[in-house]
User: Fold these one by one.
Assistant:
Number 1:
Amino acid sequence: MARPARFSVEVADGMTTVALLGELDLSCRDDMEAVTESLSHDGLGLVVFDLGGLSFMDSTGLLALFHAKRALNDEGRMVQVVGAHGSVLKVIELTKMAQELNLSP
């Protein structure tokens, strides 16, 4: 049974970390948009999306992550993606999105 993604947001020292847990797919698109919208109003600098807790991400989840990054960049926010591993990292690599997402180890 699929475990829809959950989001944990932590703010410390001018940086916002969004930890994603579970599976990021079509069922989570609206939740991802809501998280992004809430971040666009906090005015802090760097946003880090930590994918270390994801067990699965499909192309819809990847697109949601890309849209989140682009929306935050448009607001002047820096975005970094960390913690991708296993099948999640493979989706990012196969689609050649690592650079677009500012993926770090």
Number 2:
Amino acid sequence: MVEKMNLKSFGFIAVGFKAGLIMKGLFALSEILGGVAAFFLHPERAVALISMISERELTEDPTDLIMNYLVHFGHSYSVDTQRFLIFYLLAHGVIKMAAIVLLWYKVKWAYPVSAIVFFAFIVYQVYHFTVSHSFFLIYVTIVDVVMIVLTLLEYRRTYSRIISESA
């Protein structure tokens, strides 16, 4: 059965929850695809690709922040980095996608389990931020915090309504 999404029947929390699931689902899919791409992106290929992309841009603007970051990434991209990216992106993407699918179909036990999984990701992301200082991790962490709150609110809203209807 396909659910009709409208603000009146779902309420603000439910709409925010569904929107968050869609956003996190797209991000999880990009992680899975990134993990697959990393499998084929050997360090030699990465350096060649980055050189091809950045050469013209850096001759026009040698201070280009993004291109310089990309070149730095290419020089530090090793087989160990490749293996880490493959493992991390695939594991993170698949686990997150599984949680999202279970939440989408309102599997009761998935709500608290997903909140715990998202919290574990937050712990790792905060740790990784202290090492990498990647502001993207701050953004992802904020999204995860919002998703935990929405997941728990949706759990309470959905299952308190079912309990009150059966009483």
Number 3:
Amino acid sequence: MLGLNSFKDKKVMTFLAHPNDEVLGCGGLLSRAKGDGAQIFCVIPVKRIFQSCYNVMEKLDARVAWGHFDDNEMDKYPLLEVCEFFEDYIKQIKPDIVITHHYNCANQDHRVCYKAASIVTKPIKGQIQLLSCEVPSSTGYLRPSNFEPNLYVGLSYEELNDKLDMLKMYKSELRADRSEEVVKALACLRGAESGNDLAEGFMLVRGYC
């Protein structure tokens, strides 16, 4: 199961707090997964619904589910409530791979998602590969951030362009620290670190082979 050379016949699920996190954190991976024929599911726990998110899901041929949690206030809810919310989708979909936030992101909603995903994907009734992604504007701002990628997904220029096209769909969310230029520069950096032209970096939290 360990290894992401192909996403064929895989179910890939994201548990990322806000609409646009899926593009910033793993839009290239999701583009590659779509090309390989994977099923993609995005679970967004906050109740911040954008039409642009539906446009992104259509481009990815993905299904999306929304939660009831208040934006930027997920830490006010009991962790058990967040776990139970996410666990319902784990039971329904039975994903092979879950992608969530880094445990030390600056955003409190991101940190709650990481905790819940880590708990819900424990290998009690199955093995789910768990990855943490990096979201520019949040990951790395709490020092020391300790985001040290140990798994790289190489991207083609077409897959990076797909990511940038999806990023443009969230035009109202663009700003200096998560601009197209930042996303391209990060893809080049992760590519250089991994012997690729372009890549996305992840931390493998839990993997199996």
Number 4:
Amino acid sequence: MHMAKDRARWYMAYFSMRYTSGGGLNTEAWLFVVSDIEVELLALCYVLLNIEPGSEEKVLNEVRKVQNVKDCHRVYGVYDMIAKVEAESMDSLKEIVTWKIRRLEGVRSTLTTIVIE
């Protein structure tokens, strides 16, 4: 299975509350970056889309907004568009394609190809 790399950042939060001698409340909060790490994404697919005529630009912009879509282009041929989707699992890929891409207004049909290596 394809192992894509992505970046993640771990944080540590600090919060403090103290009563002052005058009866007031002093608060402070800090957020520290603990480390930057690389995270393995385990699933990759390409989604070929057929789009309703006249909706291509709108659908292209909407597909590019979907969180796990890494790339999306209009193409010539049997299909109108191709999107590259990466996720942490096959179940996540299924959810993204089924509920976030296929349900977009203007998408007529899709064909999903799962990358195996």
